């Protein structure tokens, strides 16, 4: 599946744009949710975040989005530009990087008559969708959907979309405007194998086309090696980070998911 390995990574952070998390900690209602999490994310890189239920994956995303207060630092350094430090979600000394976000799949009632065009219009304008939608809004929605090869979905009811089609519609919205960083919370859940393959191809195409950092969480470990440059294993703390094969064969991975090491493993 992988068609493209990003060339800029060879120089590390110095000559490529980079999101840096350093010593990130989050507490809520007296509970420590994240503790001392540090890693870098480069443009053009797809990084998968894995961990058991309740590991803090969505909380980590919300911290980057500025929706959850944290301790530590999050900085964004555009290639060749000054670094932007995000303190508790506020950009200090620069323009806030654009972060596109696809939340964990919302569900739509099967009989819900809201069309993809209605949904787009409501999300991107103040036009009352019970009135006929003007041509310019329709053309704009079609152009945005075309980025994910979804123009044909425009008049479909949201409730009739498959899991993969719904993810593509949400992805198209997250790409308007095209962000610096794209975050997807479990985009593969509820998506069949064919849809999953299309979505992963799409992400590979988008990061190449727009030089995006893509950061996604998943519980589907079987496909990680096909699309992720790096995997981060999280369970409150960052337990391991590296290429997919290295993380998936690590003792930390086996311990976290209560698996036994196979032959050749040291345990
Ligand atoms: N608003 C909140 N107030 C208090 N605790 C919270 C809040 N939001 C999340 N938590 C707790 O933080 C922990 C991490 O939750 P989070 O949703 O980030 O995990 P996750 O790794 O995304 O889980 P999953 O894989 O099940 O989606 C959980 O124990 C959860 O109960």
UniProtKB/TrEMBL annotation:
Gene3D superfamilies recorded: P-loop containing nucleotide triphosphate hydrolases
GO MF annotations in UniProt: ATP binding; ATP hydrolysis activity
Keywords from the named record: ATP-binding, Nucleotide-binding, Transport
Signal sequence range: none
UniProt cross-references to InterPro entries, sorted A to Z: AAA+_ATPase, ABC_transporter-like_ATP-bd, ABC_transporter-like_CS, Metal_Ion_Import_ABC, P-loop_NTPase
Keyword Transferase in record: no
SMART domains given in the database record: AAA
Keyword check for Nucleotide-binding: yes
Span of domain ABC transporter: 19-261
Protein name according to UniProt: Metal ABC transporter ATP-binding protein
Annotated source species: Flintibacter hominis
